Amino acid sequence: MEIVELTDKDVEQYLNLLNAEDSVKDLLSRLGFPLSKQEYYEKIKSFSTWIKAYVAKQGEEVVGAITFTGAENLDMKDACIITDVSVRKDHRNRGLGTALVRTVLDFARNQGIRKVVTIVSEMNVPALEMFHKVGFKPYRVLKDYYIQGENAVALEYELV
Ligand SMILES: CC(C)(COP(=O)(O)OP(=O)(O)OC[C@H]1O[C@@H](n2cnc3c(N)ncnc32)[C@H](O)[C@@H]1OP(=O)(O)O)[C@@H](O)C(=O)NCCC(=O)NCCS
Known about the structure:
globular, alpha+beta, 7-stranded mixed sheet, 5 helices
């Protein structure tokens, strides 16, 4: 298993992985997904801050992915936001989600970023447990954050 930065070669599989996930479908459809590879690149180029993704690969197969962006446009200069982390169902519970999150923490540390934040549904026990184990701390409940009426929890990890 290797974790590498997302490149053109893996975008199709990366998008398929994200689109297979109920928890991110709603968000992606609000962003206009599913998108073709070309549309995806145009979309991310139009973001007002940087966006980056890593994929976990077993051979040529993408079995996990994590996406994160800068937070400058939220007036958080030294922070970045994990917008999604997904592991294919048949590869869960083997530490892959944790390894993807740690890859982002390492990247952030190297860039001098001081805080990594993320937002998770309060119903999403696997994700809450994973982020808790890595060391993320809840700092705010966002009421009725999702269309279905669920609350979300904002979590943060301080790098310094
Ligand atoms: C959340 C997700 C990425 C976790 O990936 P994963 O590779 O299975 O996670 P890990 O194996 O690294 O698990 C780390 C810890 O999280 C907890 N955990 C993972 N799955 C769990 C589950 N189903 N129930 C309870 N705790 C769970 C465990 O404490 C685990 O530690 P352990 O292995 O020592 O028991 C994965 O479940 C997933 O893709 N879910 C769908 C997408 C999603 O909801 N993403 C998050 C919001 S963007």
